[in-house]
Task: structure prediction
Amino acid sequence: QVQLVESGGGLVQPGGSLRLSCAASGFAFSWHAMSWYRQAPGKERELAARITRGGGSTNYADSVKGRFTISRDNAKNMVYLQMNSLKPEDTAVYYCKCQDFDSWGQGTQVTVSS
Result:
């Protein structure tokens, strides 16, 4: 059973940083690409960042490129999202997801506000 548990969200001022973590279990983590999605209030869920199974290639939405960095630790079954230079429009619930399964975690709330 695929399980994804996100953590690390919170309230941060504009320009600040947060690091999100996702603990994955129930599947062969190192065999699969992983992604971070986000859903802002009143908007559809969108892909923010993706990383290949070995970590050698990453992709980002234009809105986060240059500010967010996705990474993974296959030994620990963890995926991370380092978020810098945060903006109010980054406010959303953030979810990690394995691209090959339909399961979602509970998400972690990120609020960027002064």
